[in-house]
Amino acid sequence: MELPFWVQVFLIIVQVAAVVLFLWLIWPQVKNEEWKKKFIDNKQALSILIVFVLVFIFVYGMTAIFSWLYPVELVY
């Protein structure tokens, strides 16, 4: 069963509003940090960031492959 169009639009608006509120709340902390010294120059933090990105790409790729190989079959 599919949601009505207005419910889908409402949920998208709520998600966008949540992102905007989150960014508004954390912006003072973000702009006061020295990000290059904290994450790029620190070799351990940089390696953790690289591993995080690789894991994200791996999970996204596995999801795409399994969605392509085994699509959801809708039975009515």
Give the helices and strands, then pairings.
Elements: H1 5-32, H2 35-40, H3 43-69
Q: What does this protein look like?
A:
The chain is an all-alpha fold and 76 residues long. The protein folds into two domains: 1-32; 34-76. Helix content is 80%, strand content 0%. It has helices at residues 5-32, 35-40, 43-69. The longest helix is centred in the first third of the chain and has 28 residues, at 5-32. It starts with a helix and ends in a 7-residue tail after the last helix.
Distance between the termini: 10 Å
Number of strands: 0
- Taken from the alpha-carbon principal axes, the silhouette is flat
Low-pLDDT regions: none
Question: What's the quick description here?
Answer:
This protein has 76 residues and is mostly helical.
Pick out its properties.
single chain, 76 residues, mainly alpha, 2 domains, 3 helices, 0% strand
